[in-house]
Amino acid sequence: MTIFKLIISEIFHRKINFLLGLCSIILVISSFIVSITSLRAFDKKTEEVIADEQKKIEHEMFVLNDEIRKSMKGLGFNLYIFPAGQELDEVYAQGFASKMMPENYTKKLAKTKIMSINHLLPSLTQKIFWEEQGGRVVVLIGVKGEVPQMHRAVQKKAMINPVERNHVVVGYQLHQSLQIKPGDEIILKGHKFLVDKCNQERGTVDDITIWINLNQAQQILNKPDLINAILALECVCNIDALKTLRKKIATVLPGTKMIELKSKALVRSETRAQAKKTAEQTINKLQQKRETMKKKRENYALIIIPLIIIVSVAWIAYLTYINANERLHEIAILLATGVKTHTIIIIFLLKAFFMGLFAAITCLVILFVLQSSLSQYLLEEYKLSQVIEISEIIWILIATPCIACFSAWIPALIASRHDPAIILRH
Q1: How confident is the model at residue 285 (pLDDT cuts 50, 70, 90)?
Q2: Whose CA, among 20, 158, 274, 413, lies 20 to 30 Å from 371?
Q3: Mean pLDDT across the chain, nearest whole number?
């Protein structure tokens, strides 16, 4: 009888012993595979969750920044450029410049590629007496459409709608005290104007302003092609950026003076910074939470897997030892008839080898059959085939029989070392 026939006969003769060893190996392999693939699936799921959350937050940040941009526009312009030689003390005292500069300065500035400023608006502001209303003091502001910045592929929507010729926008105190309504006609400096809009109360000098078309304001004030301020919106709000911006504007418009309204700039800067910080904190918290959960799983695997392997190796060794003790008489007869010691050892090791190989194949088949359930409860909705490589399956098929042989080695060696004369004498 050949060795293989002996092994097959042994397996079928002692089926319970073989099945117990088989189950222990299947338990080890399944625990190992499920633990490793579960951690790997968790990592992949974490990457997906973080990526999805990142996209979601990026989209929310885009929407939020757009909403912030729109709401910040409601704060008005925060950058004012005044003519060369203008004393800023005078601007602070009366609210506008007395010096003049060419209107085409706005176009010159618009042609530059200063990305930190937007919404360039030329204006002409001056206090006048409204003779048609008993010499009442009002602030006349002449504006037209914002000058487009040619270096921008997409032009931003204007902060202030242009005032058309022969139309006027009236401040709150004026239209309230004079009972002016949209659609009315008023006379200003001998010119007839149609009231387009009556502003809400702002609690500033704006409440006594009259807004008209820039060209008509230049005509009324006898300031052809002149303005006394360029209004703009600065996007980057910090001291270093302001210094750089002053130098750039001075290069384009030599001698001009610039004022930045710090409170409005600060609101913009802090709001955007806070929104960005909140988004980053959300991502960091999610990453930390996933890392904590991963650490717990790893700690669990580091305890359970070695423990199961040790118990399984001991169990296989014990089953081999019991099997060898039950077959001492058979082993003694084989040795007495000339069978070599290493042949006896090989018989036990080959039985353990086939046990390990069959257990590995059986375990892999079971896990792949049940991968839908594993996906739902253990593998973060991934299929087993998505988180395990072919090379790893090959290593399992190689390593498992080798570990089984190692477990059976010592009991097989002990069994082969018995003296057949002593055993057969009894």
Answers
A1: confident
A2: 20
A3: 78
pLDDT at 159: 60
C-alpha to C-alpha distance for 367 and 30, rounded to whole angstroms = 7
Query: Is residue 3 a contact partner of residue 350, using CB atoms and an 8 Å limit?
Result: yes
Q: How far apart are CA 391 and CA 384, in angstroms?
A: 14
79-82: strand order across its sheet: 185-188, 191-198, 167-170, 209-213, 136-143, 117-130, 229-234, 79-82, 257-260
Q: How far from 43 is each of 39, 123, 221, 285, CA to CA, in Å?
A: 6, 59, 72, 16
pLDDT score of 71? 42
Distances (CA, A) of 325 to 279, 330, 338: 69, 10, 20
As given in the structure block, the two tokens for residue 177 are: 């005290």
With pLDDT > 90 as the criterion, what percentage of the chain qualifies?
17
Convert the pLDDT of each residue in 148-157 to its tens digit. Answer: 665 454 555 5
Residue partners of 286: CB distance under 8 A and separation at least 6: 49, 50, 53
What residues contact 12, with CB distance under 8 A and at least 6 apart? Answer: none
The token pair at 382 is 């991934």
Angstrom distance (rounded) from CA 187 to CA 130: 9
Please give the pLDDT value at position 338.
Answer: 67
State how far the alpha carbon of 114 is from the alpha carbons of 165, 240, 333, in Å.
Answer: 31, 15, 100
Handedness of CA 182, 185, 186, 190 (dihedral sign): positive
The answer, as to whether pTM is greater than 0.70, is no
Please write the tens of the pLDDT for every residue from 323-354: 777 666 666 666 666 667 777 778 778 888 88
d(CA 276, CA 274): 5
Counted residue by residue, the chain has a size of 426
Whether the CB-CB separation of 61 and 275 falls below 8 Å is answered with yes
